[in-house]
């Protein structure tokens, strides 16, 4: 047994492998708020992060990065296909997102999901110091809390779900639904993005397992399990800092110039995923051009669609459909040198992304369903002159936090179109009031606050403080 007193278990390690010209491998930290938020806690507690390194085959040796031990878990090519692309991304992902795309179930996928979860739990049980805290992340690892509890009842276990948790009727479709629920109930604290998700979970413990939840708690074998909402956020200060750099301000001007100085730039930035409502957004834009409520080149759309899960069938067909729609809009409404939609199927660094955010008059964040949506929050934090407008789906968790956004129902095309027109016609005064209020909110509710509130609820002392489960408070 090792002596890690704080462990994060996630599908992926927070690093990407980079191989140089001579074939030597190094690791680059992947960008993201989660890593930034957890780093101080990990560092102060000689923490360990357990996860897959991103390539099938033998796992690399454990290594250290910035004072944190990274412990890679092996996944075979078949497991990547069945556990990751199959059960996680073709069964659970669509089902948990209100089945906006049909979910697929295969028995061989479940077997692999079970085996991989058992492997993660085993590695974690081996690494954890007596009484250590373990924080398990997301839908790929829902069995880990239960499996870990069985091996190591001494541990304090937290689980956080980054995506929505479905209502009872939908969850009931899931083969092995009992095992999943029991897996989650192995945790002391089960965290969700929104209160409704926690309520769905608690209702299911009654419906499926006959437990009697009270308030936020349910008693399982004399253990109290708490289910509650902890809306995730961004590193607001870091986003604001990037947005104020000369490099970003200059680049934002250049982008507007390159687009031909339009009056209204509508921007979408999403992983290319059917939950993000990209097709519906494009259709709304096409109809607005058709109706003459928006006109090219005064109004243009920029859609950044980050490549994602490209080996999963549903994602490949989505890409085809999106690209066909972009082609159709440009064919009908573009002019030579002035396309109506600028479509970028690429990843960008933080600076380019911030410049795009700053150049946009309207940010379109219109998912059909989304756990939170950090793009909406990043856009707000980048609006240092408060001039932009956020059109936000009611079905994104972020709508619970960014209440001054122009809220829309993306399932209703008329409402979506009206939302864009309202935002485009809003007075500067109105837009600035909304943006100021949202920025104030995000300054207070940033990702460190999220991590702190989860860990405090789990019983871990203040962020950064070393956590020694066996120690007594010092007498003063
Ligand atoms: P995602 O579905 O991946 O996350 P989101 O929350 O929007 O969605 O996060 C995407 C991240 O990727 C953002 O930080 C964004 O800046 C970045 N990104 C997007 N396009 C990019 C590009 N072209 N280049 C570089 N970076 C890009 C899941 C859930 C969400 C939940 C998060 C966190 O689906 O609902 O908010 O986890 O819990």
UniProtKB/TrEMBL annotation:
A Pfam family recorded for this sequence: Glyco_transf_20
Domain of life, source organism: Bacteria
GO biological process: one example: trehalose biosynthetic process
InterPro entries registered for this protein in UniProt: Glyco_trans_20
CDD domains: GT20_TPS
Family per similarity comment: Belongs to the glycosyltransferase 20 family.
Name of the protein this chain belongs to: Trehalose-6-phosphate synthase
């Amino acid at each position: 047994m090792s002596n890690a007193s704080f462990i994060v278990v996630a599908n992926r390690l927070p690093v990407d492998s980079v191989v140089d010209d001579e074939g030597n491998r190094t690791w680059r930290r992947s960008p993201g708020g989660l890593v930034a938020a957890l780093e101080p806690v990990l560092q102060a507690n000689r923490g360990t992060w357990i996860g897959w390194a991103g390539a099938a085959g033998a796992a690399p040796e454990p290594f250290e990065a910035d004072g944190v031990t990274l412990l890679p878990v092996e996944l075979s090519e078949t497991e990547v296909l069945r556990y990751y692309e199959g059960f996680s991304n073709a069964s659970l992902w669509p089902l948990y997102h209100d089945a906006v795309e049909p979910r697929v179930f295969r028995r061989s996928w479940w077997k692999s999901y079970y085996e991989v979860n058992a492997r993660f739990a085993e590695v974690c049980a081996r690494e954890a110091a007596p009484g250590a805290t373990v924080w398990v992340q997301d839908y790929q690892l829902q069995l880990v809390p239960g499996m870990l509890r069985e091996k190591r009842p001494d541990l304090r276990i937290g689980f956080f779900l980054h995506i929505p948790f479905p209502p009872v009727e939908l969850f009931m479709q899931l083969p092995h639904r009992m095992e999943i629920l029991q897996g989650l109930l192995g945790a002391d604290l089960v965290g969700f993005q929104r209160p409704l998700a926690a309520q769905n979970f608690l209702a299911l413990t009654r419906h499926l397992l006959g437990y009697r939840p009270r308030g936020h708690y349910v008693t399982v074998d004399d253990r109290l399990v708490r289910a509650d909402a902890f809306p995730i956020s961004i590193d607001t200060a870091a986003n604001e800092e990037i947005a104020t750099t000369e490099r970003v301000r200059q680049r934002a001007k250049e982008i507007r110039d390159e687009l031909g100085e339009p009056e209204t730039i509508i921007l979408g930035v999403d992983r290319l995923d059917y939950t993000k409502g990209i097709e519906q957004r494009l259709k709304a834009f096409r109809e607005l051009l058709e109706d003459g409520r928006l006109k090219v080149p005064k109004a243009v759309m920029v859609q950044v669609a980050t490549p994602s899960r490209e080996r999963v069938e549903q994602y490949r067909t989505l890409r085809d459909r999106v690209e066909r729609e972009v082609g159709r809009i440009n064919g009908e409404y573009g002019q030579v040198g002035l396309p109506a939609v600028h479509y970028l199927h690429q990843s960008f660094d933080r600076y380019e992304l911030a410049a795009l955010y700053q150049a946009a008059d309207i940010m379109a964040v219109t998912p059909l369903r989304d756990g939170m949506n950090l793009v909406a929050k990043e856009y707000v934090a980048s609006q240092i002159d408060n001039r932009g407008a956020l059109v936000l789906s009611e079905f994104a968790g972020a709508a619970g936090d960014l209440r001054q956004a122009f809220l829309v129902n993306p399932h209703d095309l008329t409402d979506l179109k009206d939302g864009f027109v309202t935002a485009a016609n809003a007075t500067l005064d109105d837009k600035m009031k909304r943006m100021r209020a949202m920025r104030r909110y995000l300054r207070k509710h940033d990702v460190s606050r999220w991590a702190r509130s989860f860990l405090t609820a789990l019983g871990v002392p203040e962020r950064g403080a070393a956590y020694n489960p066996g120690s007594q408070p010092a007498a003063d």
